[in-house]
Amino acid sequence: MYVCLCNAIRDREFAAAANGAANVADVFRRCGRKPQCGKCLPDVANFIEETLVEAGSMKAIAAE
Ligand code: FES
Fold first, then answer.
1. d(Cα 27, Cα 13) in Å, to the nearest integer?
2. Which of 18, 43, 46, 53 is most deeply packed, by most CB within 10 A?
3. What is the Å distance from ligand 1's center to 3 Cα?
4. Which fold has domain 2-63?
5. Does any ligand 1 atom lie closer than 6 A to the CB of residue 41?
6. How close is the Cα of 62 to the center of ligand 1, in Å?
7. Does pTM top 0.90 for this prediction?
8. What is the phi/psi pair of residue 34, to 5°?
């Protein structure tokens, strides 16, 4: 599914780029593109948050 229509970036590409990204601009840089209209920025931020939650869950599981 396309998340960023301006740049034709799909959810899978954002999910991969968000892993370890510092911020939304970093995700776009990793995708080799720049934000344009900005409508997708909250969704991109959610991808970063999801990767952080997943990383935290993995650390919690590893610590058990
Ligand atoms: S939809 Fe992503 S910058 Fe416009």
1. 10
2. 18
3. 8
4. Arc Repressor Mutant, subunit A (1.10.10)
5. no
6. 37
7. no
8. -125, 145
Strand 2-4 versus strand 9-10 pairing type: antiparallel
Q: Cα(48)–Cα(59) distance, rounded to whole angstroms?
A: 17
pLDDT tens track for 3-61: 999 999 999 999 999 999 999 999 999 999 999 999 999 999 999 999 988 888 777 77
**Banded model confidence at residue 63, pLDDT cuts 50, 70, 90:** confident
Distance CA 49, CA 8 (A): 21
Residue type, 30: R
The atom of ligand 1 lying closest to the CA of 5 is 1
Nearest CA to ligand 1 atom 2: 4
pLDDT number for residue 54: 84
Q: What atom in ligand 1 is closest to the CA of residue 7?
A: 2
